[in-house]
């Protein structure tokens, strides 16, 4: 089979990407084209790029009804640096019968000679070039000629009207202006997940603004812990198929009431008529979770009930938690600034494998720890959660 490969960050995928794939397919008689997102490129600021999770979902959405265009995870699923040369070598091993066509924008072709092992790339794939709107034709022709001469190869040119659609425009323009640049499903996905933050119509504080606020409110070590939980939670979310932005936000917020004293926590609960359990009477610091969820909703205007509930249950846990609740509960315990908990290395190791198992181990250690010190303050939910995850483990 003849297979085209279109790589990129796809942040987000848009109509031009699809069009390039279809034109390449038609003009070079390819059987299919793979949309192959790359992991975070090392030269770009990580935070400026939307998580793998969302970029992948958007690609799947975009190609779902396009015949002969498919999503490929071969680069994004690899750890560490991914070089095109390695990818093509790997593909040749996996699919020795197939022929690969590597599609490049004219902007990339300008740097092609500086890529890692261009000789390997041209050995395992034919190159196809598509001209970008802002590139000069002569410069592109010169460059193509140079590469052709150097490697003694033919580079194909995809003929198509240059498009002015760009991912960077889509990331910054108001939603109303991008609707005809991306497939409907991708548009709906962006709006639903409030990606790119370019049209934030509700009152919710942005994650950056909340972070700035907490930097002032919390003690320095508590603030560092907060960042550790958010980052750990985000990583775990990627592993376990949870929305990483949600996990990061819940992590940032989970201890947002931790600067309050026990008497302040009690006073707020009474004023706001938040119920106080018997255990919370005995150990009022537990209330920072409940009051934290309250602040998230009424001070920071977070409306996502999954985030609010993850904050509320982060200290005690409870039976049958959602994955997000489990992630915040666990990330709180294992984030990199924690040092005192026993067997942290083992627990951190579990964090990329077994979420239920990790939840169980943490509940077990927490109960052991509290049993030695003040067993009368062990929360009923913590005990029930322990029993629940223990049973889950046994029935596996
Ligand atoms: O707020 P953090 O310190 O980051 O972490 P956290 O919200 O998990 O609170 C940690 C403390 O809460 C730790 O000392 C263990 C304790 N804890 C967890 N579950 C229970 C509990 N304390 C009581 N009294 N009862 C529980 O069920
Ligand atoms: Fe906490
Ligand atoms: Fe915490």
Short description:
This protein has 396 residues and is α/β, with parallel strands linked by helices. The protein is built from 20 helices and six strands.
Structural account:
The longest helix is centred in the middle third of the chain and has 21 residues, at 220-240. By secondary structure, the protein is α/β, with parallel strands linked by helices. The chain has helices at residues 15-27, 52-63, 84-94, 106-109, 118-124, 137-151, 167-172, 175-178, 184-192, 207-217, 220-240, 244-253, 262-271, 278-282, 287-298, 305-312, 323-334, 344-350, 355-373, 380-394, and strands at residues 2-8, 32-37, 69-71, 99-105, 125-130, 156-158. It has 20 helices and six strands. The structure holds 2'-deoxyguanosine-5'-diphosphate and fe (iii) ion (2 copies). One fe (iii) ion is lined by residues 225, 229, 254-255, 332.
Biggest sheet: strands side by side, in what order?
A: 3-2-1-4-5-6
Largest sheet: 6 strands, parallel
Q: Are there runs of 5+ residues with pLDDT below 50, and where?
A: none
Rounded to the nearest angstrom, the radius of gyration is 26 Å
Helix-strand makeup class: alpha/beta
Q: What is the string of SSEs from the N terminus onward? A: EHEHEHEHHEHEHHHHHHHHHHHHHH
Please indicate the percent range of residues in DSSP E strands (runs of 2 or more). 5-15%
How far apart the termini lie comes to: 43 Å
What's the multimeric state? single chain
Relative helix content: 40-55%
């Amino acid at each position: 089979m003849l297979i085209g490969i279109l790589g990129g960050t796809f942040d987000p995928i848009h109509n031009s990407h699809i069009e390039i794939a279809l034109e390449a397919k038609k003009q070079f008689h390819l059987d299919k084209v793979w949309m192959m997102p790359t992991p975070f490129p090392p030269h770009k600021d990580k935070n400026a790029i939307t998580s793998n999770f969302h970029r992948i979902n958007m690609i799947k959405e975009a190609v779902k009804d396009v015949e002969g265009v498919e999503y490929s995870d071969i680069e994004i699923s690899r750890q560490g640096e991914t070089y095109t040369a390695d990818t093509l070598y790997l593909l040749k091993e996996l699919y020795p019968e197939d022929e690969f066509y590597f599609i490049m924008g004219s902007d990339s072709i300008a740097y092609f000679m500086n890529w890692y092992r261009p000789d390997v790339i041209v050995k395992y794939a034919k190159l196809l070039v598509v001209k970008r709107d802002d590139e000069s034709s002569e410069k592109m022709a010169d460059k193509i000629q140079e590469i052709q001469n150097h490697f003694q190869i033919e580079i194909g040119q995809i003929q198509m009207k240059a498009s002015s659609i760009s991912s960077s425009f889509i990331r910054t323009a108001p939603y109303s202006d991008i609707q005809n640049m991306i497939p409907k499903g991708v548009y709906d996905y962006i709006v639903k997940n409030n990606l790119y933050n370019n049209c934030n119509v509700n009152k919710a504080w942005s994650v950056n603004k909340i972070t700035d606020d907490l930097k002032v409110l919390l003690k320095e070590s508590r603030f560092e812990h907060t960042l550790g939980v958010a980052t750990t939670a985000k990583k775990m979310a990627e592993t376990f198929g949870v929305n990483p932005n949600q996990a990061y936000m819940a992590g940032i917020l989970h201890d947002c009431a931790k600067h309050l004293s026990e008497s302040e926590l009690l006073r707020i609960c009474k004023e706001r008529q938040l119920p106080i359990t018997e255990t919370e009477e005995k150990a009022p610091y537990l209330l920072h979770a409940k009051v934290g969820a309250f602040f998230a909703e009424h001070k920071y205007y977070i409306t996502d009930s999954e985030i609010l509930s993850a904050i509320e249950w982060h200290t005690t846990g409870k039976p049958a938690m959602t994955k997000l609740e489990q992630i915040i509960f666990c990330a709180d315990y294992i984030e990199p600034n924690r040092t005192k908990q026993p067997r942290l290395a083992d627990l951190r190791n579990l964090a990329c494998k077994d979420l239920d198992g990790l939840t169980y181990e943490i509940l077990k250690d927490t109960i052991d720890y509290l049993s030695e010190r003040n067993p009368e303050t062990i929360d009923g939910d913590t005990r029930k959660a322990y029993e629940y995850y223990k049973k889950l483990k046994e029935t596996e």
